[in-house]
Design brief:
- The chain is an all-alpha fold.
- It is about 65% helix and about 0% strand.
- It has one domain.
Length: about 160
């Protein structure tokens, strides 16, 4: 089982996707967990999740952990498939519970909306879903802890650059 989780290719494109998704979600998770980068921190985020969204407390905690620890997991390439799965589930829930009514686009153009923010659409979430699914299926790629920990006899053939 662990062999399946760690298996990956020495693929530089996977490494780029993993690192970009990891940095983005670490930053989002740090906003929610620690209050960094202008975020509200754990208690502020949990208040929003439980009161405004009606999310059960445990699911709010899991969402914050998926972003924060999933981001770290992807940056390091340590159990990248697990981190990607957490982010994938998180984005599916975000689309279904929060962003679906707002359509595809981010809707940040206040001039078009008469000065009213329409809410975030799904375009970011769909891109994150696609990247997370790619990592879930293919592994962490090059320059990952997973690649270093993978048993030598089970390594996938190296992909040419």
């Amino acid at each position: 089982m662990l062999r399946n989780i760690l298996s990956t290719r020495n693929d530089y494109v996977l490494a780029v996707l993993r690192l970009v998704l990891g940095v983005v979600f670490f930053a989002h998770g740090a906003q929610k967990m620690l209050g960094w980068f202008g975020g509200y921190g754990f208690s502020g985020t949990m208040g929003y999740f439980t009161m405004a969204l009606g999310l059960p407390y445990i699911l709010g905690v899991l969402a914050i952990c998926a972003e924060f620890f999933g981001g770290i997991s992807l940056i390091l390439g340590l159990l990248g498939r697990v981190g990607a799965l957490g982010i994938l589930v998180n984005m599916v829930v975000a689309v279904l519970m929060v962003h679906r009514p707002n359509g595809l686009f981010m809707n940040w153009n206040l001039a078009v909306s008469g000065g009213m923010a329409l809410g975030e659409g799904n375009e970011f979430h769909l891109l994150a879903l696609a990247i997370a699914l790619t990592i879930l299926v293919n592994g962490s790629g090059a320059f990952s802890v997973d690649e270093m920990l993978e048993p030598a006899g089970s390594r996938t053939l190296r992909q040419p650059v």
